[in-house]
Amino acid sequence: MFSVKEELEENKEKEASLSSPTVALQEAKEEQENDRLQATLKEQETSFSVALKEANDRTNEVMDALQQEKNKIQATLAEKEKLYNAVLKGAKHEAMKKVEEQYDKLQQTASTLL
User: What is the model's pTM?
Assistant: First the structure.
């Protein structure tokens, strides 16, 4: 016959042997879940990196286009400034010519009056 003490020890051993596979199963499930989460994280990191690179490339394209447009505008402004200066110079020359003509006429009128 088993004594109560022996029976308790036997029950503890049975319980330990039963809980050991349960613990191992739980640990395996946790490890599997951890692996799945790691894979998902890696996938998301890759996705994010690709999206970030695409956004960076697009930003560079836009910046290049803006720089080209700025250069065109500056070239147009420089050209218009040259034209404006040429017109202004021509207008000054014409105005001086008219003033000289008027002066000559006034001198002739003054000569005839004196």
Answer: 0.51
